[in-house]
Amino acid sequence: MENSFDVVVIGSGPGGEGAAMQAAKGGKSVAVIEGYSRIGGGCTHWGTIPSKALRFSIYTVMEAMNNPILKELGVNVSPTLMQLRASANSIIAKQESMRQAFYQRNGVPVLHGHARFIDTNTLELDGETRVRGESIVIATGARPYRPDAIDFRHPRIFDSDTILGMTEKPHSITIYGAGVIGCEYASMFRNLGIKVNLINTRSKLLEFLDDEIIDALAYHMRDSGILIRHNETFQKIEARADGVVLSLESGKQVKTDALLWANGRTGNTDRLGLEAVGLQADSRGCLQVNEFFQTNVPSIYAVGDVIGFPSLASAAYMQGRAAAQHLCGCTQHCLSLADIPNGIYTSPEISSIGKSERQLTEEKIPYEVGHSQFKSLARAQITGRAIGMLKILFHRETLAVLGVHCFGPNASEIIHIGQAIMKQPAPHNTLEYFINTTFNYPTMAEAYRVAALNGYNRLF
Prior knowledge:
Elements: E1 2-10, H1 14-25, E2 30-34, H2 41-45, H3 48-66, H4 68-72, H5 81-105, E3 110-112, E4 115-119, E5 122-125, E6 129-138, E7 142-144, E8 157-159, E9 172-176, H6 180-191, E10 195-199, H7 211-224, E11 227-229, E12 234-240, E13 243-248, E14 253-256, E15 258-261, E16 265-267, E17 300-302, H8 313-327, E18 342-344, E19 350-354, H9 357-362, E20 367-373, H10 378-383, E21 389-395, E22 401-407, H11 411-422, H12 432-436, H13 446-457
Parallel strand pairs: 1-2, 1-6, 2-3, 6-17, 8-15, 9-10, 9-15, 10-11
Antiparallel strand pairs: 4-5, 5-6, 7-16, 12-13, 13-14, 18-19, 19-22, 20-21, 21-22
Helix pairs in contact: 1-8, 3-5
């Protein structure tokens, strides 16, 4: 049996959803193929949504435990991991139901099965049904990279897909890999009172961030009790009945109750039969695309984590939309995909957009810095969330905002004010907006006015 559509999308995560919805709105007949039994992809079921729901539960409990009023009343809470994860299950169900309605409302059938290319326009599902598409969008996402030498079947060894299935809270854990996922879980586990060893294969945490933000994150992690080891490489991992021993090339050995492997991801391309269409993934399973997200085969597009950096759900959705607009006939850059903000859910949060000081210095761009320390903001003092800062980088001559970096509670929300101004055409994208605009008081958004004035004063 063969079904024909204008567009076939493989994967129902953010990238696939963005492509499918945009193509359907463009008048194309669209079908989505999903290998998992439920829609939403890894983002919904074992990645972004459940991990951020768990983080919120942990943060809520932590605030309650540190609340002096509750302490005085003798309230003491120590929830289990199962209890902390309970809210995530209802959120996942709501997200799944909502997305199912999107496909139904737009007349997009969701076909379940593993897709494999027969030719450039034909896919086969589990060796039975064939689906034809004039254009095909690969949005299969990625999974944790698993070295063959590590026994991931052992109940004490986890990766980012399986860690949420941990049933008992360990006393200690080693996290190998200090990228975004490793840092986020290090913060979560430490907030639960678990001893954390964070092993970094590089010389700094999250090197793509502004140096001041990196330093702040490292300081607060260490201050919370996280032990960070830089420039380390694993030699072997030995799982025992009473724990896991990580042996490092440096000669160090680290033994903890459990180990989370968070070192790299692999694109989900190995089951697609790419050889049938002349495509080849790189060593990490990722596909190369052009500015319109086309692969080397013009009718085949790829979006989201399967193409690598920046590997963000928000970016994947916009990439899917951009690919769909192109296959619908838009030959220009119809969406703004530059300066994508990042949101890193450590404790405290981090979010940034635009250039860092390091980049501006390397590019010899004359810039100045405006700071706002959260401890000086009335809203932060009221809420008791005074750790953090907002940093605005701007051109010394034009005052154009070149980058915004935020470290602290709700950073991923606060960043969007700066993003909106940076996207305005000159001369409306300058520091003067923040100086001359009235912000509600007391709010965290007021940090922009404080930082802008701080930076403006440095010019004279």
